[in-house]
Design a protein that fits this description.
There is one protein chain. With about 300 residues, the protein is of the alpha+beta class. It has four domains: about 60 residues, LysM domain (Membrane-bound Lytic Murein Transglycosylase D, Chain A); about 45 residues, Roll (Membrane-bound Lytic Murein Transglycosylase D, Chain A), CATH 3.10.350; about 45 residues, LysM domain (Membrane-bound Lytic Murein Transglycosylase D, Chain A); about 110 residues, Immunoglobulin-like, CATH 2.60.40. Helix content is about 20%, strand content about 25%. It has a nine-stranded antiparallel sheet. Strand 8 and strand 9 form a beta hairpin. Helix 2 packs across helix 3, helix 4 packs across helix 5 and helix 6 crosses helix 7. The radius of gyration is 31 Å and the shape is elongated.
Length: about 300
Amino acid sequence: MADEEKENEKVETAQVTPTPSCPGGFLYEIRSGDTFYALARRFGVSLEAILAANPGVDPRNLQVGQLVCIPGAVTPPTPPTFCPGGTPYVIRAGDTLYLLAQRFGTTVDALLRANPGIDPRNLQIGQVICIPVTVPGPPPCPGGILYVIAPGDTLFLLASRFGTTVQAILAANPGIDPNRLQVGQTICIPVSPVQPRACSFTLLPQLPGVAPNAGGAVWLRTDATGATQILVSATNLPSPTALGANWYTALFTWDTQRVDIPMQATPGTGVWAGGAVVTVPSTFFSSATVNVFPGPVLGGLVASCR
């Protein structure tokens, strides 16, 4: 019991963190990577002054979230609220002034002049700085579609998805860095826009001797970017185990592309169904075929979608 009381006393004592006083200065919350030396350079004070203003603080063991006192007649830095002729920018992981200067067609010196007091060696994720140039809006994209970069995208994957080539995407986006695509960045995909539509078509038996009464249908709904909802259903099918599989799959193929949609049995109905949302090019609607495997027991042409 005595040991438990002592342990509780330790916990209570550890939870009490007094806020340091800071007359003539301001309190600063330690971030990842901060050192007293870096803070001294950033705020224009001496290392000795910071040490004197924070007695008892171990400069070799600063903790993220810890409050320290920055002495002197200075005010905390604030993000630029006015960026004449330029654009505010939020720092992301991996950013450096050199890379930002290259990306936006300016120089490191110009960035430093537009952001007095910034520490180029200690940029913080989420920090707002001023880019002293006008950042262009979405690129023109005649005869193509505008696409917003998502996590994991590469030009090779986009070219494969939309039925174009990496060279064509680069030509449609002069100045783009294929090795540094940014999530949220808008680029031009040089393919013909997909005609928005909602349609359906019938799947016909392909193995009369095995599944003579099999039937099915496909429903499609798409927008101008090619984002397409696909629903496949089938009925009067034999058990897939009789054909050497555990379930049915609807396979869509066109050009060199394919989309596999696993299907599940609806208990008590004899209906197998599956769905997906995929992005497809306009050629999908003119040349894609669909077959339900194993077998295939059913098949059809997307071009017949009405």
